[in-house]
Amino acid sequence: MTQASLLKPTRKTDAKYLRDQVQLAEQHKTSAAGSADTATTQAGIATTKANETVATASLAEGYKDSSLTNAQAAAAAVASIGDVSARVMPILKERGISNIKAIALKGAEGWEKQGNQSYKSEVRPAGRHLGDYASVQDAWAANKDGVASVVGDVYFDTVLGRQYQLYGTSPNGRLQNYRYGSDHLPLEAMFVVSGTGTNTRLMIFDLTDPIVPLWMEFEADNADLLAAAGSANFSGVSNPVFAEGELVVGFNTGANGSGLRRINFKNDTAFTYTATAKYQYAGSIRERNNGRGYKVTAGADIAHQYVNGVAVVDGYIAAATDGGLSVIKPDGTVVKSSSSGEFEAAAFHNGRLFAIRNGTPNGVWDFGQPEKLESSFTPVNTWTNATVPGLSASTLRDISNGCDSFLLLSDSTIDQLWPNPADYQSSLISRRGENYATPPMKKPELMLICGTDGGAISGVNPSVYLISSTTSYITTPNSVASQITGSIDIRVHIKPDYWIPSESVNGVILSKESDPSLRAYRFAISDAGILSLMLSPDGSSSVNVACSAPVGFSDGDDGWLRVTWDSSTKNIEFFTSTDGSAWTQLGITDTLNVASIAAINSRVDIGGRFGGTIGRYEGEYYKVEIYDGIDGTLALSFDAEDYNGGTTITSSATGEVWTPVVATISNQSADYSGKSANGRINGTLTATALTVGGVAGLSGFTTGNYLEAPNPWDGIGTGEGWLACAFKCTSSGDVESFIDLAYHNGSGYVDSRAWISVSGDGYLQFVASSNDYASYVIANSDSFYDDGLLHTVVIIKTTEGYVLTCDGAVLDSVDNGSHGNLSFNASAKTLIGKNWSGGATAPNSTIWFAGGGQTALSDVEVNLMHQHMRNLIEGKASLDEIPTSAAYDPIRQAVELVGDTYRQSLQDGAITSSVEHGQGSSATVAVGPRSEIGIGGSSSVEVSVPERNLRDRPLSLVTERRTVTYAGDATGSRVLFPDPTNDAEVAEVIGWRPLLVYDDGVEQTKGDADDYTIADYGLGRYCVEFATEPADGNNVDIVFEREVWK
Fold first, then answer.
1. What is the maximum alpha-carbon separation in the chain?
2. Which has the minimum average pLDDT: 55-59, 519-523, 1019-1023?
3. Residue 30's pLDDT is what?
4. Which among 43, 81, 78 is positioned nearest to 63, based on CA atoms?
5. Mean pLDDT score of the chain
6. Comparing C-alpha atoms, which of 818, 823, 684 is closest to residue 741?
7. Which H or E run contains 364?
8. Is the Cβ–Cβ distance between 95 and 244 less than 8 Å?
9. Which tens digit of pLDDT belongs to each residue from 918-967?
10. What is the predicted pLDDT for the residue at 514?
11. How many CB atoms are located within 10 Å of the residue 253 CB?
12. Which SS3 state, helix, strand or coil, does residue 350 take?
């Protein structure tokens, strides 16, 4: 294993260089008439975006915090140092076009100036483009560059969101303009779809012009190219994609106009695919708004006319529809999935097709390589919230590519999945929300301390908090003990949000009442603060008695409530208390006349009835007790103190199991492994982040202040596994205990133990024992780690031994000897910040990311975990909002996340920038081939184009090849090259894909029924898998290739 290259989150633009270049540009003002105007314009952009003054330095800072901050902009800036005359400043342009539905961006493809497409001869204004104005009167009065506006000049109306040509006479003469600028499709362009129905527009903006003029506009009137069938009434638009001269976009939610549209600017044609046929527009692109209509043409239909998402790669088009997934192949044939269900989105990733399948729950389906898909194709794997790894949400919104991964967006989370097609359950996953983020995890069993909120967290006086939701309650199944038929005594310790319930009906504190025909008893409080008790003598009818006085507690108070009913005297009495011992009667003694309480088969609910759907009473619940008889036998006991990790609470007094539903357990440390292995907070700890928005580590550990959680290595035996954490430890001379998996019975350790700590003399160490800690093996560092610096740790358990890695490097490894079979005691748990014997805590340490799993980790996976752990702590981890759209930039290897308010950039696990985009709600985002970024929402659309140098060749994907020889073995049996378990072999070709394969100099044939196939292990790990082992002694030569941006 080698040292990981840890990329700390940083802004990519060199602000100092930009300042220097602006100063240099100022020196050229006198010799370049346009430089001053350009500088002023760009300074104005910086002022708008960064809310700073138009000073030279603020220009650089404005770019730094704007959407122009990316690696390509920095690279272009560096390239232009010696040639300012060729430098093209960045473009940041906003267009006031409302109701943006979708955006696509294109780069130069080489064909644009070739051919005689109809739109090249389209009539267009010969005048100047005046720029942006709020009215036609302003445009006529512009006097741009000292020249009066004339008929034929063009301007963009910032109020109406349309482009106009000055026409007739000043000051009101104008005509809407649908075509302007170059005859050919711009080399760099932005496609914007806005509106719904007949108000839908497709606009193409020229990004090679700093003004960003409208180059072409499509309308959706009856039988127009965009409208397709009849008068368009669709309201939904899928993500458009431009590739190889063609714009592909889907429309949905309308009988007319829905379907998949292919607008080919290279061939000057347009086609629509629906569930019944393939249609061709009867006119050319020049006639796009002339209502030529569509005619049926040769070709296959798609699964459904409602298209929710599209994806394009190498001539393959995937359409996710309401009736299945369709793939249009380069030869025009269409194949459809066997599933006719609704698909939400699709994406091609590393040569494979993935799609979101709507269902219960939603899932991500992997259909494999598109060239192998045939009619009624089926997935080769699926991921849901119930698989391994399990997704965080049951409802998914979108899928986006990432670096060796893809992102899954839901309404509350983002999951990043690194797929491993060779072993799907070994795919890595990380999870992220608005207040937590995890590192990549492989088959995790536990992952704690991932939150970003700071402050004290306490397990003192614990409670279960029921939120204001129809499904928030605490429940336990029916039991004989709960079927009390005689005298009953109910006692409750609560702190409600409001002592006067927010619902117009009674707030239910406790009930044994599944539905109106299954009821026994109910303790409630009215909207006047009056307690009441309901009893049912037969399971359906009810008798209710209310107290004669209100409870008397004030909002913010916690208090004890009690009601007793004597089956002999029929007397009912209500009480309050501040400590649960001394009771004060509330109101008068009354009577409740029923012969007995019905013994029914119904669960017992706290905080509501009928499964929490009626009479919810939100707040903190500390303790609930039900006695059979007044001061009689304790029948049921809910006590938040009994919480011991996981998702349920087992009563220590009466043994029943209580399940909080959509509730918060105050002394719970949330687990993000997907296994609900939540931990318990004992005492009080402090959560502190090193950076704003970073994951907050826990500190303040003592013998009484620590975490405990389930054991992630329970049942591991001789199997493989991993443990991980991050820490910062200052020198103390004491042992600092980070993670201890064990059980100690008070006299000694029982069975196995696994322990991560810093020794009293400052060395990082891992200890494993399988024999009551009578002996052990230990892996040690050679240097001190109580240095007050942040360190990340991953422990690897192999079949041969244990490996201690820190900060991406191997510090030590040790053979397991007699300690490879770890059989933990059934009572074993994970202690964090304290060891089981109590002899060591972590008073001088801060701990993050305590977790583990039971699977092997490769070098690349270990390094990825180290990198992301550090970046999540030292960088921003939390989301400022859950995004509604995402797009991947392969040059920067960043994912742009856009929601109603923010544009956030995700790189190497951290949010490297977060700015308000100002484009309104329901925003969408697209990234171009040169790191252009387009963002559109309900109010407007914005595009940023990185700085470039006209004398430089643009970045492009370049194919590189290399040959690796695997020397023949004399006797071994081997079919995989490289060996996926050999980290050195894998590291040599990571990111390279096999192209040609030779066995003893003879070229082999790729195919399922031929000589070899390619196995994809994820994270850029591709292996050739021979159908038959090469002969002993034969060399295997493999030509690998990869694409890099140069």
1. 106
2. 55-59
3. 33
4. 43
5. 88
6. 823
7. strand 363-368
8. no
9. 999 989 999 998 899 999 999 999 999 887 665 556 667 788 999 999 98
10. 87
11. 15
12. coil
- The H or E element that residue 132 is part of is strand 129-133
Measure the CA–CA gap between 861 and 427, rounded to whole angstroms: 10
Q: Are the beta carbons of 904 and 913 closer than 8 angstroms? A: yes
CA distance 804 to 764: 9
Q: Is 396 helix (H, G, I), strand (E, B) or coil?
A: strand
Greater model confidence, 62 or 1015: 1015
Q: Tokens at residue 280, please?
A: 């061709």
Residue 637, judged by CB atoms within 10 A of its CB (0-12, 13-18, 19+), counts as buried
* Amino acid sitting at position 203: M
Instruction: Specify whether the CB–CB gap between 906 and 7 falls below 8 A.
Output: no
Q: What is the rounded average pLDDT of the residues 817-831?
A: 96
Specify the residue for token string 């458009």.
240
Cβ-contact 868, 760 below 8 angstroms: no
What's the pLDDT at 641? 93
Pairing verdict, β 941-945 and 428-432? unpaired
What percent helix, strand, coil does the chain show, rounded to 5?
A: 10, 45, 50
Q: Is the pLDDT of residue 16 over 70?
A: no
Q: Where are the alpha helices (DSSP H) in 722-876?
A: 859-874
Integer-rounded Cα Rg, in Å, for the chain is 34
Rounded distance, CA 225 to CA 220, Å? 7
Distance CA 1034, CA 966 (A): 9
Q: Report d(CA 212, CA 190) in Å as an integer.
A: 9
User: Virtual CA dihedral for 304, 305, 306, 308, nearest 10 degrees?
Assistant: 80
Judged against a pLDDT cut of 80, whether residue 68 lies above it is answered with no
| 3-state DSSP assignment of residue 633 | strand
CB atoms within 10 A of CB 925: 26
Contact 61, 43 (CB under 8 A): no
Strand order in the sheet with 957-966: 957-966, 1036-1045, 993-999, 1002-1003
* DSSP state for residue 513 in the 8-state scheme: E
- For tokens 């990082």, name the residue: 764
SS (HEC) of 409-450: EECCCEEEEECCCCCHHHCEEEEECCCEECCCEECEEEEECC
The angle that helices 33-50 and 56-65 make with each other, rounded to 10 degrees, is 50
d(CA 534, CA 520): 8
Asked whether the predicted pLDDT for residue 625 surpasses 70, the reply is yes
Amino acid at 825: N
**Residue 214 is inside which H or E element, if any?**
strand 214-218
| 3 state SS of 784 | strand
3-state secondary structure of 87: strand
CA atoms within 13 A on the CB side of 654: 20
Spatial distance between the Cα atoms of 452 and 473, rounded to a whole number of angstroms = 27
Pinpoint the alpha helices (H) of 28-135.
33-50, 56-65, 71-79
Q: At 678, list the tokens.
A: 């939540």
Termini Cα distance of the chain: 29
Instruction: Give the distance, in angstroms, between the CA of residue 987 and the centroid of all CA atoms in the same chain.
Output: 28
Is residue 144 within 8 A of residue 133, CB to CB? The reply is no
Q: How many CB atoms lie within 10 A of CB 195?
A: 20
Of residues 770, 762, 756, 927, the one with CA closest to residue 851: 756
State the burial class of residue 94 (Cβ atoms within 10 Å of its Cβ: 0-12, 13-18, 19+): buried
Say yes or no to pLDDT of 20 above 50: no
Tokens standing for residue 890: 């392969």
Q: What are the two backbone dihedrals, phi and then psi, of residue 218, each rounded to the nearest 5 degrees?
A: -105, 140
Q: Hey, what amino acid is at 565? A: W
Query: What is the token pair recorded at 74?
Result: 């920095």
Kindly indicate the confidence band of residue 34, based on its pLDDT and cuts at 50, 70 and 90: very low
Rounded CA separation 101/236 (Å): 7
How far is 741 from 755, CA to CA, in rounded Å?
Answer: 6
From residue 215, give the alpha-carbon distance in Å to each of 46, 128, 179.
Answer: 26, 13, 5
